[in-house]
Amino acid sequence: MALKRTARVKLTIPDDRRDDLKRTMLTFREVAQQFVDRGWERNEDGYVITARSHLQSLVYKQIREDTGLHSDLCIGAVNLAADSLRSAVERMKAGKRAGKPTFTAPTMTYNTNAVSYFTDGDESGYCTLAAYGGRVRAEFVYPPDEDCPQRQYLSGDGWEAKGATLHYDRDGGDYYLHVTVERDEPETELGEAENGTVLGVDLGVENIAVTSTGTFYSGGLFNHRRDEYERIRGSLQQTGTESAHRTIDQIGNRERRWNNDVLHRISKALVQEAITHDCSHIAFEDLTDIRDRMLGAKKFHSWAFRQLYEYVEYKAAEFGIRTKQVDPAYTSQRCSKCGTTLRENRTSQAEFCCQKCGYEVHADYNAAKNVATKLLRSEQKSPSGGATNQLALKSGTLNGNGEFTPASP
Ligand SMILES: [Zn+2]
């Protein structure tokens, strides 16, 4: 498995090349839009064209002739267009509203042919970026912190720099390069693992996360602060003055930092729990449309869940632990003890009581165990092969065949 990270670094652009870079970025955006426009016109069968190669064959040559944009940037623009068309089509397929994608953000995609990195040793490095008027040499501006991750990612120390996205910050007038870096990590598929153990995580509003090992991370503080914030924002919005809007922005930024900080800490604790229980995998329910499935979930929650998942995935990978999402169907109705799935098993928001075997347990904890079981089952190659895999529980482990082993004291 390739471990992926993004290194975000500020660039110094020579004054005499700023216009070239700006013109390149504007053209890139126009070109990406032209590809989108062509794709949106649809093919002869009336379908939006989402295949990169198809789009390229239709208009690439003409666009290259018209704009003289570097061929690799042109390719980047096709890729960007194809990606955005594909996600628009996916939204339509899911019955959601989707208009023609438009590009407004000041960004530009560099594949490995359009950017080169020069980052030998500890000295601050630089890159060269394809642009009108020839390559632009841009120095990296690292934060003063010696151990800053950007420096590590870009210093070549085990990490390989791949493509990048160039961002222009309109407020500060600075350019930032977001470089994708990769490192190879040995990985074990659960089905092949000697002793694969899964930590299941259930997400929710009351409890932001509950694990199959029985740890509850309350969402109470989150929800309380969230309501408080909404209330203050609402009254400031009514005030409507310029300074009120500035205050809204300031509070918003502070809220985001606070939320991120809490999610970071929860993710750390979750990964620590997986390490403590010797887990090879962490299972979450599928996050797509999670808000629609969850009573009382707000937009904030789907954001928080995605963020939490990303943090966990990121941190767990450093320890060789894989993070996966499983189909959430029936995880709240299935009895994690006897396997009976009944709507009536879920007696209230917090309570689960199996109508067949009488197992009474907190509903979120029951769901967390089911999430882990789902991953075990989905990765099981043969019934016998699965016997070595198990899910991590409070008091021991349970394998895919339902055999329970108590934790050693
Ligand atoms: Zn039961």
How would you sum up this structure, described in words?
It holds the Pfam family Cas12f1-like_TNB. Residues 379-409 are annotated as: Disordered. Residues 305-371 form the Cas12f1-like TNB domain. One of its GO terms (molecular function) is DNA binding. In the N-terminal section; belongs to the transposase 2 family. It is a single chain. The chain has 409 residues and is α+β, with helices and mostly antiparallel strands. The chain has two domains: 1-185, no CATH class; 197-406, Nucleotidyltransferase, domain 5. Helix content is 40%, strand content 22%. The chain has nine helices and 17 strands. It has helices spanning 18-40, 52-67, 71-93, 149-154, 220-239, 242-276, 290-293, 299-317, 363-379; strands at 2-12, 107-110, 115-118, 126-129, 136-141, 160-169, 174-184, 197-203, 207-211, 216-218, 281-285, 322-326, 351-353, 360-362, 390-392, 396-399, 404-406. The strands form three sheets. Strands 8, 9, 10, 11, 12, 15, 16 and 17 form an eight-stranded mixed beta sheet that branches. It has a seven-stranded antiparallel beta sheet with strand order 2-6-7-1-5-4-3. Strand 15 and strand 16 form a beta hairpin. Helix 1 (18-40) packs across helix 2, helix 5 runs antiparallel to helix 6 (242-276) and helix 6 (242-276) crosses helix 8 (299-317). The two termini are 34 Å apart. The relative contact order is 0.10. Zinc ion is lined by residues 335, 337-338, 340, 354, 356-357, 359.
